[in-house]
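DM between two lab members

TW: hey, do you still have the Vitellogenin domain-containing protein entry open?
JB: yeah, one sec
JB: this one, 136 aa:
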Amino acid sequence: GRCWGLKVGMEYDYTYYGEVWVGIPDIRKQVAGVAVRAEVTFQVVDIDHVLGKFQKFEVGDMNGDLPCDRNARLPVNNWGPLPNSADAKMIEDPFRFNMMDLPRGEFVMEVSTGEPHWITDIRKSVAQIFKIYPLS
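TW: and the structure you got?
JB:
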């Protein structure tokens, strides 16, 4: 049989953090950026299907000088929930993805109709971590 390294019936909890910032640090250390953080739970439904769910999803922004270490996280101090309650609810709705759609050899994630692209992109960024080909 195939082995993905994840056990069917198990739940896995992770802390998610992502950030995007823009600036030209070689000219000036000032940047503008946004960061997101959340708890995410994955439940392995069967050999190929996984359910994901974000909880405690928060956003923050920053506009100012970068610390000396460019690899450090953005110094965000104003964390809070998404300002749009519909988006806040949608990002925390469960989502489903396949480890591998074997007939096509592709990774597949279900996307709800009307789902904003940024929500799909964040979900994909987390789901892609689990895009692992079987060991056997």
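TW: got it. The first helix runs from residue 85 to 91. The chain is about 15% helix and 40% strand.
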